[in-house]
Design goal:
Layout: E1 3-5, E2 18-24, E3 35-42, H1 49-65, E4 70-72, H2 84-87, H3 97-108, H4 116-128, E5 131-139, E6 149-156, E7 162-167, E8 190-192, E9 195-201, H5 208-217, E10 221-225, H6 231-244, E11 247-251, E12 254-256, E13 277-286, E14 292-298, E15 302-309, H7 311-316
Helix pairs in contact: 1-4
Length: 362
């Protein structure tokens, strides 16, 4: 069985320090269809940007060794989800020096587009010849919005191109302390060698119109990223698969209480011990009928690998197709607004400055 590596500590461990790869066989189908092998890397988040990029490379290469051509990481895997917002005391106090210090460090480790971290991810996707979908905290470094952070989801093609750059439309609850609202520019699926791939971030899966926009964009595989995929997140992910008649890769991450920012005090009602999991993972792979191909994995690192039969999408659409025969465009009118994104793609002369240019949606 292929093996996968989860580094622990400051530097990634070599592939010989392995954790299990959880493998699902190909789903049988009455239709001759293209099969694709996909992987979710569930691992402990890194303390800083360089370590996060190194751990990303380890995970990608281990997933590729297991045969995956589409590799997925969880919500803001780089530089890690700010779980301290929900489990530490006084995080929301006005003008609180410890919180400001933690935020400044988070902003410093966030990813700018264009920027060296995006270049590194593009190089990684190209060198491994995979489609790479990774969540990141994004920092706007130029133009309108300079200094604002966004909860972003990047999709890189196996040629290194940035195929899609999605910003979470509405930061959820305490997230509004650190992230700004997104836009409609990335609410779409894109063509990849693994099929048409789209994605939403966390509670966007409870936004009916965001779901419909992705359904109408046409997804073979949907990436649902979460900080940790607990029971209700599993409900949302399975509902999305059933509604969209597509495969869903629900990706979560791991974080121990001991890795929370040292400036902040964990709330005793939320955190009991340093080795307690604050983020528990819960990554899973879900078929187009809403059933698990690989059940959720909690409280341990691993690489979930499955061979998907995209013919299942067509089979399941016989009974439900929310953009086709089970849709009434003569009754309901719907459109998505998108447009140029200030500060993210263009230089002073309006020319694209990204080393990995954003590709057409297809």
């Amino acid at each position: 069985m292929p093996e996968a590596c989860q580094p622990r500590g400051g530097a990634p461990e070599p592939p010989s320090a392995a954790v299990p790869a959880f493998v699902s066989p190909a789903t049988t189908s009455l239709v001759t269809a293209r099969h694709v092998t996909v992987a979710i890397v569930q691992a402990e988040v890194a303390p800083d940007l360089p370590t996060a990029l190194a751990r990303t490379a380890v995970g990608v290469h281990q997933a590729r060794a297991a045969g995956a051509t589409l590799v997925v990481f969880g919500e803001t895997w780089i530089p890690g989800y700010p779980a301290w917002l929900d489990v530490c005391r006084d995080a929301a106090l006005w003008d609180h020096p410890p919180t400001k210090a933690v935020f400044a460090r988070m902003a410093e480790s966030s990813v700018s587009v264009p920027g060296p971290a995006v270049d590194a991810l593009a190089d990684l996707a190209r060198d491994a010849e995979v489609t790479l979908v990774v969540g990141a905290s994004e920092r706007v470094d130029r133009g309108p919005g300079r200094g604002t952070l966004h909860n972003a989801l990047f999709t890189f093609g196996p040629d290194g191109r940035l195929l899609n750059h999605h910003r979470k439309l509405v930061p959820t609850y305490t997230e509004r302390l650190v992230w700004g609202p997104g836009d409609g520019d990335g609410v779409r699926a894109v063509d990849t060698p693994a099929g048409r791939v789209g994605g939403l971030v966390c509670w966007e899966h409870w936004m009916p119109l965001a779901r419909q926009a992705l359904h109408e964009s046409g997804e073979d595989v949907h990436v649902a990223v979460w900080p940790t995929a607990h029971e209700m997140h599993q409900v949302a992910s399975r509902h999305y698969a059933f509604e969209g008649r597509c495969w869903v890769l629900a990706a979560g991450s791991l974080l121990r209480a001991g890795a929370l920012p040292p400036e902040l005090e964990p709330h005793p009602g939320r955190v009991g011990a340093a080795d307690q999991w604050v983020l528990r993972g819960g990554s899973a792979i879900i078929a187009p009928d809403g059933r698990y191909a690989i059940a959720p994995l909690y409280d341990e690192p691993g690489v979930l690998v499955a061979e998907l039969d995209l013919g299942r999408n067509r089979e399941e659409s016989m009974t439900l197709d929310v953009t086709g025969h089970y849709h009434r465009p003569d009754v309901f009118e719907f459109r998505t607004r998108s447009g140029p994104r200030p500060g993210a793609r263009s230089g002073p002369d309006g020319a694209t400055t990204q080393r990995a240019p954003l590709a057409d949606a297809g």
